[in-house]
């Protein structure tokens, strides 16, 4: 019997998870996708492809950027997708993806750049990858060890975390 390894399509869109310090500009800037180095260091035993869709802060996303993400996810032939994204507008993008049937789409990001030692990025990536490999079809936000339904989620900027929104 052939060894069939699971496959994960990974799309990156920038955000804090991909930020790094730029000495020349004396500040943070979106860099190469953090997930590339993270997966290499983790010595993962599944097949994956990483496609960088955008390299920008999610606060700068336009409707055209969200359309680009939606089209890439919709047209991807693989059923399991991880999308790294900036946390400020992650919920907004997630809501546009809920119309895509038959795929497991998990979004994650970081509150602190992945290249910073105290970052939550590596944990969030590992958790999101597990969710993308195991959850049934649907759209999920994986942050802080919790899977969130994007229709009932918000980012609490004061606390620096995502939280469930109670519906009435």
Kindly summarize this structure in a few lines.
Helices cover 26% and strands 32% of the residues.
User: What radius of gyration results from the CA coordinates?
Assistant: 15 Å
Please summarize the sheet with the most strands: 6 strands, mixed
Strand order of the largest sheet: 4-1-5-6-7-8
As residue ranges, the low-confidence spans are none
CATH architecture, by name, is 3-Layer(aba) Sandwich
Number of strands: 10
- Treating each run of at least 4 consecutive H or I residues as one helix, how many helices? 4
CATH H-level superfamily title? L-asparaginase, N-terminal domain
Helix content: 25-40%
How far apart are the first and last residues' alpha carbons, in Å?
52 Å
- The CATH topology: Rossmann fold
> How would you describe the shape?
globular
CATH class categorisation: Alpha Beta
Q: List SSEs in N-to-C order.
A: EEEHEHEHEHEEEE
- Mean pLDDT over all positions: 92
Number of domains: 1
Features of the shown structure:
two-stranded antiparallel sheet; alpha/beta; 168 residues; globular; 4 helices; Rossmann fold; 6-stranded mixed beta sheet; 10 strands
Describe this structure in words.
- The protein is α/β, with parallel strands linked by helices.
- The protein has one domain: L-asparaginase, N-terminal domain (Rossmann fold, 3-Layer(aba) Sandwich), CATH 3.40.50.
- Helix content is 26%, strand content 32%.
- It has four helices and ten strands, in the order βββαβαβαβαββββ.
- A hairpin with a 4-residue loop joins β2 and β3.
- The protein is globular and about 45 Å long.
């Amino acid at each position: 019997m052939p060894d069939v390894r699971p496959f994960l399509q990974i799309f990156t869109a920038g955000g804090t998870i991909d930020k790094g310090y730029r000495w020349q500009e004396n500040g943070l800037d979106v860099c190469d996708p953090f997930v590339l180095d993270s997966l290499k260091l983790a010595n993962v035993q599944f097949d994956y492809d990483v496609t960088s869709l955008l390299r920008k802060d999610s606060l700068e996303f336009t409707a055209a950027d969200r359309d680009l993400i939606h089209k890439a996810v919709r047209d991807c032939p693989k059923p399991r997708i991880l999308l790294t994204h900036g946390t400020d507008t992650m919920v907004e993008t997630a809501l546009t993806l809920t119309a895509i049937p038959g795929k497991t789409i998990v979004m994650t990001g970081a509150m602190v750049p992945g290249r910073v030692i105290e970052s939550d990025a590596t944990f969030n990536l590992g958790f999101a990858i597990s969710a993308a490999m195991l959850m049934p079809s649907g759209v999920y936000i994986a942050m802080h060890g919790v899977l969130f339904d994007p229709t009932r989620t918000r980012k609490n900027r004061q606390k620096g975390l995502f939280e469930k929104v109670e519906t009435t």
